[in-house]
Write a structure and sequence with these properties.
mainly alpha
Length: about 350
């Protein structure tokens, strides 16, 4: 069941469709009285931008409300929908599987819908995961082979073999990271439910996020959180910052504020030779984004999501230690960029 992206209250429908698919009306949440999910009217570009900006509403839309069936207001369309449902039931009839929507015979239809939704979510995870692994492999390869990345004419069969090993290594690390995150998340959920069970039942009950929780939402939220990290890393891979002007001279700052030695030392921390921007984006920003996405799904204290990310990092680092001799000759660079 979809939820309100503002208060997470479960709602049967997000919008109502009339005679045309483009003639729709957003449903209002009965609890907070706001639109249940305004993102149903937004295009894909808006969703991607809000996803990069780590907005909680777009996470809830993509994880819980994506592909939800609308309310059909047209009587003719409703009759066609019910007629197609009866036709499907009659073509594959088995005793006790078809019936009216208020009877017990409707439960197998609901189970069939939930199983299809779960299958579609896992297919989405495989598609997103494949794209993320490919992008990650290209970024890792660019860090390990900066000369070939700058001049593509140097590409050879040996380069293809190196890239293939990096691709396999990224795939194994990603599977290990997601497996560790799922195991740690399940442990955190049981611990959180045990600590807060009495308070939740006494005050407000279980939230809509926890009611609609599925294990497949954990890797999907982590993959969505990776959009911010990989977007910035891809830009840094293509357009590397330069420490010099166009004429070749290094940047020089003049004026009274820059005559102070403390100010100069503080600014030198941001120099290219002292600050690895790719490492900061991958580790610091990537970890924060993954923790934010997990908090949307787990609906628990940030301390627990931080612990989950740390467990995933530890498992992935251990796998990277095992793969570094096979994947790359520059083992230090591989380990430095192995943390998600």
């Amino acid at each position: 069941m979809p939820i309100c992206i503002t208060c997470t209250e479960p709602t049967p429908y997000l919008y109502t469709v009339y005679d045309s698919a483009y003639n729709l009306r957003l449903e209002q949440c009965k609890k907070c009285l706001s639109f249940a999910d305004p993102y149903v009217e937004h295009d894909s570009l808006t969703l991607i931008l809000d996803l990069i900006l780590l907005k909680r509403g777009v996470y809830r839309h993509l994880l819980y409300n994506r592909g939800s069936e609308p309310r059909i207001a047209s009587e003719k369309k409703m009759q066609n929908f019910l007629g197609s449902t009866r036709t499907e039931c009659s073509n594959s009839y088995q005793p006790g599987q078809c019936g009216n929507r208020s009877g017990e015979g409707h439960e197998p239809i609901v189970d069939w819908t939930l199983s299809n939704e779960l299958q579609a979510r896992w297919i989405r995870i495989l598609r997103l995961g494949s794209g993320m692994v490919l992008v990650d492999a290209f970024i890792r390869w660019a860090q390990l082979n900066p000369a070939i990345c700058a001049d593509i004419s140097q590409w050879s069969n040996e380069t293809s073999a190196v890239f293939l090993r990096i691709l396999v290594g990224c795939f194994v690390e990603t599977v290990a990271f997601h497996g560790g995150v799922i195991l740690a998340s399940m442990l955190v959920l049981h611990t959180s439910d045990w600590l807060n069970g009495a308070r939740l039942l006494r005050e407000e009950g279980v939230s809509g996020v926890r009611q609609q929780f599925r294990i497949s939402l954990i890797p999907l939220s982590v993959l969505y959180s990776s959009f911010t990290k990989y977007f910035l890393l891809f830009l840094l891979t293509i357009w590397r910052p330069s420490a010099a002007k166009i004429g070749g001279k290094p940047y020089q700052y003049h004026g009274p504020p820059y005559e102070n030695s403390l100010v100069v030392r503080a600014l030198e921390v941001w120099d290219e030779d002292k600050l690895d921007r790719e490492w900061v984006v991958r580790n610091v920003l990537g970890g924060m984004a993954a923790g934010f996405g997990l908090r949307v799904v787990l609906d628990c204290h940030p301390f627990f999501t931080t612990a989950v990310i740390l467990v995933g990092w530890a498992i992935k680092t251990a796998v990277a230690e095992l793969l570094r001799d096979w994947v790359s000759a520059d083992q230090d660079v591989w380990l430095a960029y192995s943390i998600p």
